[in-house]
């Protein structure tokens, strides 16, 4: 396979996958169930791997880094084909308002669209977080009783059900939908990790203030920065010696046990 064929194949992968998802509702109850499966973890991990990672893997096999670049351009091309097709399909919709158009009017078209595409550079970061959730965190639930989580309650998408999202708006809202869940689950897992191994406030009051939103135990259980290691071990003994679930201190399961 040469690079031209790789480019066209990458486009075909995107378009074929999109058509498959659009046709699912026409296959009755079974199609709806399959569609629902792909909207939540682990199904969403599978379908997004198909759209985002499979073309890149194919590119790597064909021509290493050159292949990855060509496959990525193919993915983006396939995405734009879908965007144009979806917006053309809904061209007669009475809904005229658009998120992208409104923000372009406020900030300028090129600035808004460039900013949107810059956010796509964070996709590898979110994949890294998702991989850690799948591979790194689960052993901790067995080894030190960190709480388990049902990933589908966090990692899912539903904004395709929101009326009025079409084409460009829809694809970026789905991206935000996915990455928000991935990040939130990762943050929840980190709350457990941080309170379990390092329940010590930072010396920087500003950092404590900034971080307490994501790590509430900073204000409700962590040892003062000018405390002693004995204080830390006492907190650990108090918080974990009488529980079989090593959740962060303010977790709901602790409140329910009290």
Computed structural class = mainly alpha
Radius of gyration: 23 Å
The residue-averaged pLDDT reads: 94
The N- and C-terminal alpha carbons lie at a distance of 63 Å
The residue ranges in which pLDDT falls below 50 over 5 or more consecutive positions are none
In sequence order, what are the helices and strands, one letter per element?
HHHHHHHHHHH
The helix content is: 55-70%
Shape: elongated
The biggest beta sheet is recorded as: none
**SS elements, strand count:** 0
**Helix tally?**
11
- Approximately how much beta-strand content do the residues carry? under 5%
List the helices and strands and how they pair.
Elements: H1 3-23, H2 28-37, H3 43-89, H4 99-107, H5 109-119, H6 123-135, H7 137-143, H8 168-197, H9 205-211, H10 229-240, H11 252-257
Helix pairs in contact: 1-3, 4-5, 6-8
What do you see in this structure?
The chain is mainly α. The chain has eleven helices and no strands. The model has no long low-confidence stretch (mean pLDDT 94).
Give a quick summary of the entry.
This protein has 258 residues and is mainly alpha-helical. The chain has eleven helices and no strands. The protein is elongated, with a radius of gyration of 23 Å.
């Amino acid at each position: 396979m040469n690079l031209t064929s790789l480019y066209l194949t990458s486009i075909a992968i995107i378009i074929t996958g999109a058509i498959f998802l659009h046709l699912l509702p026409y296959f009755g109850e079974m199609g709806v169930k399959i569609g629902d499966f792909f909207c939540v973890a682990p199904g969403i991990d599978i379908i997004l791997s198909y759209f985002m990672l499979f073309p890149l893997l194919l590119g790597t096999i064909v021509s290493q880094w050159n292949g990855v670049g060509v496959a990525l351009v193919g993915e983006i091309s396939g995405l734009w084909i879908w965007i144009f097709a979806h917006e053309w399909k809904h061209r007669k919709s009475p809904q005229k308002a658009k998120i992208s158009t409104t923000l372009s009017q406020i900030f300028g078209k090129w600035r808004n669209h460039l900013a949107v595409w810059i956010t796509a550079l964070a996709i590898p970061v979110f994949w890294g977080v998702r991989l850690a959730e799948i591979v790194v965190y689960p052993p901790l639930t067995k080894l030190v009783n960190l709480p388990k989580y049902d990933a589908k309650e966090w990692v899912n998408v539903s904004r395709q059900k929101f009326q009025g999202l079409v084409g460009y708006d829809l694809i970026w809202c789905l991206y935000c939908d996915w990455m928000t869940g991935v990040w939130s689950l990762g943050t929840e897992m980190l709350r457990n990790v941080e309170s379990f191994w390092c329940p010590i406030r930072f010396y920087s009051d500003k950092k404590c203030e900034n971080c307490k939103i994501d790590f509430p135990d900073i204000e409700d259980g962590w040892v003062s920065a000018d405390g002693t290691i004995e204080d830390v071990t006492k907190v650990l003994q108090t918080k974990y010696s009488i529980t079989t679930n090593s959740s962060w201190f303010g977790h709901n399961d602790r409140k329910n046990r009290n």
